[in-house]
Design a protein that fits this description.
This protein is mainly α and about 90 residues long. It has five helices and no strands. Helix 3 packs antiparallel against helix 4. About 0% of the residues are buried.
Length: about 90
């Protein structure tokens, strides 16, 4: 939980102050921003290759972008994170 929050730019104190639904929404928004940034980088790379090579060997970016957005979040990983959090809370008491 802390690792994912840190990757999204949250400080440890901020993570513990958030409700679980707020934390999840924050991570989903960060994930969406990352996908958008990656899609933009793919498009920039496509246009660079297109204009550098005269459009002859540039691969279509649509396939890469579709793969990026077709990946689903794994529910089992999320449930495991919740269970680990519950165990940590029990250990802290």
């Amino acid at each position: 939980m802390i690792k994912n929050g840190a990757l999204a730019g949250l400080k440890p104190q901020e993570i513990w102050l958030l409700e679980l639904w707020e934390y999840n929404r924050y991570l989903l928004a960060y994930q969406e921003k990352s996908k958008n940034d990656t899609a933009q980088a793919i498009m920039i790379g496509y246009y660079c290759a297109y204009y550098t090579n005269g459009g002859k060997k540039a691969k279509k970016p649509g396939d890469l972008i579709n793969k990026l957005y077709s990946r689903k979040q794994n529910l089992e990983d999320g449930l495991r994170d919740i269970e680990r959090l519950k165990e940590l809370e029990k250990a802290a008491k």
